[in-house]
Amino acid sequence: MKIMVLTLMVFVILLTLFPAPNEAADTNVEAACDPKQLQPCLAAITGGGQPSGDCCAKLKEQQPCLCGFSKNPAFAQYISSPNSRKVLTACGIPYPSC
What GO terms describe the biological role, i.e. biological process, of this protein (predicted)? Predict the structure, then answer.
């Protein structure tokens, strides 16, 4: 349990310190790339549980940004994790092919 709490704290700190590149500008999508918007998904990604409806909604909003997040060393481990793939599948979002 302590490891999960520590992982959560590190992830939140990294979210605030290292903003992801704005991939939305490259794809002419109106959504701004903001990894903080994916905080509702953190428990499902780090713990392997089912994503909430809020998580899926935020993933859909941030979908054009996932490649940018995966290229950022601060977030790559979360985007490429097996639990992240499960969350994306459960939300009906294809894994990004960057």
Answer: lipid transport
Per-residue confidence in pLDDT tens, the chain, 98 aa: 555 544 544 454 555 545 555 444 444 444 589 999 999 999 999 999 999 999 999 999 999 999 999 999 999 988 889 999 999 999 999 998 88
**CATH value at residue 36:** 1.10.110.10
Total count of domains within the chain: 1
Range 71-79, long-range pairs (CB < 8 A, 24+ positions): 71/21, 71/98, 72/18, 72/20, 72/21, 73/18, 74/14, 74/15, 74/17, 74/18, 74/20, 75/14, 75/15, 75/18, 75/20, 75/35, 78/11, 78/45, 78/46
Residue 7 lies in a domain: no
Residue 78 covered by a domain: yes
Q: Which domain holds residue 77?
A: 30-92
